[in-house]
Amino acid sequence: xxxxxxxxxxxxxxxxxxxxxxxxxxxxxxxxxxxxxxxxxxxxxxxxxxxxxxxxxxxxxxxxxxxxxxxxxxxxxxxxxxxxxxxxxxxxxxxxxxxxxxxxxxxxxxxxxxxxxxxxxxxxxxxxxxxxxxxxxxxxxxxxxxxxxxxxxxxxxxxxxxxx
Amino acid sequence: xxxxxxxxxxxxxxxxxxxxxxxxxxxxxxxxxxxxxxxxxxxxxxxxxxxxxxxxxxxxxxxxxxxxxxxxxxxxxxxxxxxxxxxxxxxxxxxxxxxxxxxxxxxxxxxxxxxxxxxxxxxxxxxxxxxxxxxxxxxxxxxxxxxxxxxxxxxxxxxxxxxxxxxxxxxxxxxxxxxxxxxxxxxxxxxxxxxxxxxxxxxxxxxxxxxxx
Lengths: 164, 213
Description:
In chain A, 71% of the residues lie in helices and 0% in strands. By secondary structure, chain A is mainly alpha-helical. Chain A has 2 domains: 1-88, RNA polymerase sigma factor, region 2, helix turn helix motif (Rna Polymerase Sigma Factor, Chain: A, Orthogonal Bundle), CATH 1.10.1740; 93-164, Winged helix-like DNA-binding domain superfamily/Winged helix DNA-binding domain (Arc Repressor Mutant, subunit A), CATH 1.10.10.10. In chain A, helix 1 crosses helix 3. The radius of gyration of chain A is 17 Å and the shape is globular. Helix content of chain B is 83%, strand content 0%. Chain B is built from 8 helices and no strands. Chain B has helices at 2-13, 23-29, 37-58, 62-70, 74-101, 108-147, 151-160, 164-211. The mean pLDDT of chain B is 85. Chains A and B meet through helix 1, helix 2, helix 3, helix 5 and helix 6 of A and helix 1, helix 2, helix 3, helix 6 and helix 8 of B.
């Protein structure tokens, strides 16, 4: 791999690192595991980069590789001891921006999303990222209709978790 | 669902809360080694290919050749060896092409299927080898019982036992039980190995597959 390619890749990833952080946030529960998954996704992105032709946006391509790493390749490391509630670090909500009930509601929502399965999380992630159903269906490899059906089921599931 | 919309708004606003990695942090990361499932499957597969190939090589020497000739099983074991190598080449080729197909830019479902196919190729290879191994064992046992040094002693023991048929049935029975136990252990070992490695992937793949039914 030449230096120029390395430089180009690292720069692009540096600018788009938020996508990877968001995936890590959904799929891990503490900082150590978060960094671990970030590391693995970075390696996979780098490995796949020579084949990235630029016919799609760098960020679109990143969604795919990052999610695929999280739900197929990644093995949760044993060492990830739950040291702190990650919500309090990552999902810190500025109190002056929100009223207390909204904040509470958000906290519960994040907690509920955490309880979903890997595939469900992937759908929620793409939904939160404002992807349309055709992109969701292409990313996961299911039909558009089934993506919609699944998303509705997830919404119901979240509702049940929130109001038991 | 109002809450999800609320979450969406918050989610997109959240960028600034994530830790920001520097250029050098990321640069350091691309130099590290992956610890992904696929990597493990790759290593395990290489070990398996080498293991069985080596086992074939070391079990085949001049002495065993002579022994096979005196046991009158030379032709059949030679045939087994040739088949073995042809199939080995076929499996290596298939493993290589399947492995090359793994692409993280594919859809999740297709990616998972490709990974499971790679794993299946290796498992098939292992079972094929075990099959050849058992065939070889049976042939050797047959040769040994009929032409081996202790074959007469065994026949004598059989006639002394009174009921010759029962003796042979029991002998065959013991061999079958021993082989079965060995196979169960190997099977359990594989279940455990790939079970640990692929548990998550398989679960997710089944969930995606279930959606399409």
